[in-house]
Design brief:
The chain is an alpha+beta fold. It is 44% helix and 21% strand. It is elongated, with a radius of gyration of 29 Å.
Length: 190
Amino acid sequence: SERFLNTIFDSIRDPFSIVDRNFQIIRVNDAYARMRNKKASELVGRKCHEALHNRTSVCEGCVVSTTFNSANPCVKDKLIILHDGTGIWVEISTYPILDEEGSVSHTIEYTRDITDRKKAEEEKRLLIEKLQYLSSTDGLTGLMNRRALTDSLLYEIDRAKRYNSELSLILCDIDNFKEINDACGHDAGD
């Protein structure tokens, strides 16, 4: 059965490791060692924070530590800088291994590359931001368009009612603007 477990462990293509309660790395697969630009022998037997980050204590926000403390699986997205200086986004999932008494004796750390997903999320965020800008801004002047002005006025009226405060609105009259409205229409004038 040990050979079967070794086969399963080596078959996992995503980075995978097992850490004990002392944060000592018990086992890693080849994908985990490659991601860290180390040999498995350089990692196994060492504390993860020492072997991976040259630290003397557990890293802040460590999901392995959270799993040891809570006995629950955890997930965290993290930007990792590889040995060549490029950054990749990974999703780190941790799972507790319980002993006979029900205490967490080890934690499994499973890592997936989510760089493409993060790039798509950022592109989507930027697109939404651009669409929001375009839908509320006049393309010629860069000022609020009628829709944005109406939304802003409604928001301020609601806020004044909520806080029982006064609200003022300043109107400006532009000389001879009637000619623009008559020639181009009120939507263009607005």
